[in-house]
Request: fold
Amino acid sequence: MAPARVESLALSGLAAIPPEYVRPVEERPTECVLKVKGVEDEGPQIPVVDIAGWDSADEEIKKEIGRQVAKASREWGVMQLLNHGISEILIERLQAAGKAFFDLPVEEKEKYANDHAAGKIAGYGSKLANNASGQLEWEDYYFHLLWPEQRRDMTTWPKHPQEYIEVTDAYGREIRKLVTKILATLSSDLGVEEERLERVLGGENLEMQLKINYYPRCPQPELALGVEAHTDISALTFLLHNMVPGLQLFYEGKWVTAKCIPGALIVHIGDQVEILSNGKFTSGLHRGLVNKEKVRISWAVFCDPPKDALIGPMKEVVDESNPPLFPAKTFKEHTDHKLFKKAQAQAEAQAAKKLDQST
Ligand SMILES: Oc1cc(O)c2c(c1)O[C@H](c1ccc(O)c(O)c1)[C@@H](O)[C@H]2O
Ligand SMILES: O=C(O)CCC(=O)C(=O)O
Reply:
């Protein structure tokens, strides 16, 4: 049976969210970040890096950009890129196409329903209730493989609107070029050859998955999360959104709300780059909040190694004073291990809660 769609719940006009969406007190967002325009100007902010000069002939300009990208990757594990070279028109068309799909009635979208329980994640979905805790996220999503081209199953891509395929494909090609540039910069910073990270991550076989996150209006945003706190299993993740705040990064013990910067592309360092760099670059803990007045939509492109790629700290970043912090695992083992650990932690939290209630 397909899980309940959050959009249908939101449209039913309920005043209180069902208990499966209510987060434990310690996970709930604090009030100040929920206001649409309420992103504070004070305190630390996600680094913003202008990469306009990346292709410049001036080596000093390129080096400075490299330094900023590496610094953000070490200290935050996330950055907002300006002048990334992807045209505003393409981004507008991508976002219009994704929105047009989600504007379809739920019954139409159901024709694309995925079957996550059976391992088929591609298509329209909502988080499945985990047996242990039953905890759900206030979002529906659309997920499909974007790259490499020859491995895509176009039957899993939306057929409406008509331009979805063209613009999403064009966006994927642009992101693929940025992947090469960022991995080259990070490789140089680690003191290995520029092509190294990309090669270890599969080269031509590096995969990109697109997840469009659709967060309906929520009557009790102070109790829910759109996406719970996690680090990405990917190597890199690229994120666009519809200018409604909601993304938060955990930094120096506090949740920091990402400012909505017109034209910026958010880049997260994922677990695979953290592992390959032996922790020199950080896979940042982040989460997504929801909102009472506005629907939030975000477009995440996860860049992953192939499932069978063995990922461990690169030998050049390990020595006697920097012993390996992570065991080498295939990407599939890493994913399975992380999902298992999460399910286990939720089961333990649920058991502790029940015990607490019975005493
Ligand atoms: O290939 C990936 C890499 C990632 O980093 C992630 C991913 C896939 O999917 C996660 C996801 C997708 C669908 C769901 O219902 C989820 O609960 C999680 C995503 O969060 C991300 O970590
Ligand atoms: O919507 C966002 O800003 C965050 C999405 C996210 O973290 C995810 O899809 O994994």
The mean pLDDT is 93. Residues 211, 213, 227, 239, 241, 246-247, 286, 288, 298, 300 surround 2-oxoglutaric acid (ligand 2) (CB under 6 Å).
